Amino acid sequence: MDKLVQIAQLLITFASSIYITIVMVRFLLQLVRADFYNPLSQFIVKATNPILLPLRKVIPGFFGIDIASLVLALILQMLTFELLSFVVGQGFLPFIPLLIYSFNELLVLLLNIYLFSFIVIVIVSWIAPHGHNPAVELLRSITEPVLRPIRNVIPPMGGLDFSIMIAILVIYVIKILIG
User: Fold this and answer.
1) Who contacts 141 (Cβ-Cβ below 8 Å, separation ≥6)?
2) SS3 letters for the chain?
3) pLDDT in tens, 38-93
4) How far apart (Å, rounded) are the C-alpha atoms in residues 143 and 166?
């Protein structure tokens, strides 16, 4: 029976993590006004529209920020924790700690999205610096608003751009602070 619980936990965590990540990436793509004609953007829109469009009728955007995507990600994260708690046999979790923990997990996920985006951009810049890939273009559109202020303070020196290293360092500091 213990192995069945572990398998259930794995499947729930895997499926919810993928979908919540897709919802958060959609939020970021709308926040930076990325190219929605990109094939990867089209996949993200089609994957999230069935749940997100009805939610948008109830929760409007605010100054260009897609609040409905954030609320959807938070609800899905809370449901995931509740479902995992139920599978383990602990029953329902108290609402306020569940909300705080879910919000914390979404913040960590957002930081991880940026962290992995920076790493992919660095690797691609070494392998194919002038190549064109729809996924890399989206990653650049997500990361550029974060890197631009750093580049304004520390411009590229001798062809080396230290802004990604500084951004990664800041991400790790934030992850330490939020625990």
Assistant:
1) 29, 32, 34, 35
2) CHHHHHHHHHHHHHHHHHHHHHHHHHHHHHHCCCCCCCHHHHHHHHHHHHHHHHHHHHCCCECCECHHHHHHHHHHHHHHHHHHHHHHCCCCCCHHHHHHHHHHHHHHHHHHHHHHHHHHHHHHHHHCCCCCCHHHHHHHHHHHHHHHHHHHHCCCECCECCHHHHHHHHHHHHHHHHC
3) 899 999 999 999 999 899 888 887 887 889 999 999 999 999 999 998 888 787 88
4) 13
Q: What is the pLDDT of residues 5-40, one digit of tens each?
A: 899 999 999 999 999 999 999 999 989 988 888 899
CA angle 108, 110, 112 (to 5 degrees): 70
Burial 155-178 (b: 16+ CB within 10 A, else e): eeeeeebebbeebeeebeeeeeee
- State both tokens at 96: 């306020």
1 pLDDT band, cuts 50/70/90, is low
- How many CB atoms within 10 Å of residue 179? 6
Residue 131 has pLDDT above 80, yes or no: no
- Enumerate the domain spans of the chain: 2-178
pLDDT of residue 158: 78
Residue 74's nearest CA partner among 87, 53, 55, 49 is: 55
